[in-house]
Amino acid sequence: MSSLPQYCECGLGECRTDVLPLLYEMSQIATESGDLSSIISILLRLMKRHMKVVRGMVTLYDRDSGSIVLHESFGLSPEEAGKGVYLLGEGIIGRVVETGQSIVVPCIRDEPAFLNRTGSRDCDSDDANLSFICVPILRGRQVMGTISAERLYDNAELLKLDVEVLSILATTTAQAVELYLVENVENVALEAENRRLRSALGERFKPANIIGNSKPMLEVYQLIERVVRTRTTVLILGESGVGKELVAGAIHYNSPAAKGPFVKFNCASLPESVIESELFGHEKGSFTGAIGLRKGRFEEAAGGTIFLDEVGEMSLTTQAKLLRVLQERSFERVGGNTTIHVDLRVIAATNRNLAEMVADGTFREDLYYRLNVFPITIPPLRERGSDIITLADHFVSRFSREMGIEVKRISTPALNMLQSYQWPGNVRELENVIERAMLLSEDGVIHGYHLPPSLQAPVVGDSEAPPDGLEARLGAIEYELIVEALKLHHGNMTEAATHLGLTRRVLGLRMGKYNLNYKDYR
To answer: What is the C-alpha to C-alpha distance for residues 108 and 126, in angstroms, rounded to an integer?
Structure first.
């Protein structure tokens, strides 16, 4: 226990003596039962509670298949964990298994070998400032797997101390890992293959016309996957601008009826007197102006899909006629007696609460149940987390091509504003915001002051200034320039000050004004 004083040293800002009881518990289980599941459970608990680890992973190395498989983790979703399969020498984890040597990355953003294979790190957020530690699980000279940890960087001494702690954990775990691999080598390989296939399936089925990988959207993709193989009626719910038409298109173009027509009709775009003729068609002479036979949208969609957008805006009279089509897949044209049968899928969409409309008597209850066979609710943009940045980058890339304007990136303060905003207009509003900002950008970067006033975040130092006043605007620009310089120079105040044409002292005063800390940008 000669090294115990080192772990008791709290001058580094954290104390490691709390890990000792759990280390003892781990060693007892390893000695008495060798139960890997129990050992890893304690290991991950120790890392999460006592080492300020944001994400922790234990991988196992299957020599027969040559694959390194993520066995247990925390801080990762099941989808992200399923992507955690590496080859020998691939990325940081692959190099640790190949060499048997620990690797410490003080800052992920500065390490080109860091693969982000699981896709769990957002390179434009604080995730890029995390440190990554990976130690081998050794049994003799053979590498059995690795233990990895991601945590906020504090100082080199603390990272060195954490490498020592993780190495002790790896040594304690090694025997149980070896026994597990001997007994379950086939299961390990099979599980790795299943994870790979599930991950590949998720990527394959993700509709090409929809951008986003957040958890709410992955749930939407799963619902789409389930319904595309049938001709079940689908009701798409969600606020205006969330992309209901894109989901309808994804269902149609991934279904067996993809070669058939995809007919779209907005029920709110025409007056009631015209909607019936538009949907069901009319015979020659059926009303003034009917100079010839005209097929309706249902006939045009035969063999494919009809998408009825804003179905909650239909009148009760039109609702009754639509109900018959859903029940019997048949109708008559306006002014005609011949019954027309159609084979198609009906997809309806609305931003209204149909259940409340049924209770108010403004929407037919029987039609509601006919439409609500397979509901899919599209989450609003404010609930989609990292998708906001993904979509913003997508729109920047698209508008760069369409406008011929080269914009390389969105500044950090602008990204913060995009993520803080509530987006009442959802994806459509974000698209308009990016298009406007592209037109205002002059240096290949979208800055915070290029965004509309409704998105402008109040700057800490200017809380008393009117939000639309000159001082507030100038403060927002100054704040953004300082943040950009600190980010560019990884928190080096001397280099940031030179970049801004300031002295280090003046930069320090300006940073104090906005409560900025250079350590946050290392």
So the answer is: 10
The band of 202, judged by pLDDT with boundaries at 50, 70 and 90, is very low
For 255, which DSSP code?
A: S
Using CA atoms, how far apart are residues 297 and 282, in angstroms rounded to an integer? 11
| CA end-to-end distance (rounded Å), the chain | 35
Nearest to 144 by CA among 188, 195, 192: 188
Looking from the CA of 95 toward its CB, the CA atoms found within 13 Å total: 11
Q: Helical H runs in 212-340?
A: 215-227, 244-253, 272-280, 297-300, 316-328
Residue pair 79/199 in contact (Cβ under 8 Å)? The answer is yes
Q: Which residues of 240-259 are buried (b: 16+ CB within 10 A; e: fewer)?
A: ebbbbbbbbbbbbbbbebee
52 CB-near residues (< 8 Å, 6+ apart): 14, 151, 152
Rounded-to-5 percentages of helix, strand, coil across the chain? 50, 15, 35
Q: What is the pLDDT of residues 222-261, one digit of tens each?
A: 899 899 988 899 999 999 999 999 999 999 988 888 888 9
Q: Determine phi and psi for 391, rounding to 5 degrees.
A: -65, -40
**Which residue segments constitute the domains of the chain, with CATH numbers given?**
16-113+126-183 (3.30.450.40), 213-377 (3.40.50.300), 379-456 (1.10.8.60), 466-521 (1.10.10)
For residues 299 and 276, give the distance between their C-alpha atoms in angstroms, rounded to a whole number: 13
Q: Are 450 and 433 in contact (CB under 8 A)?
A: no
Q: Give the predicted TM-score (pTM) of the model.
A: 0.54
Beta bridge partners of 308: 265, 348
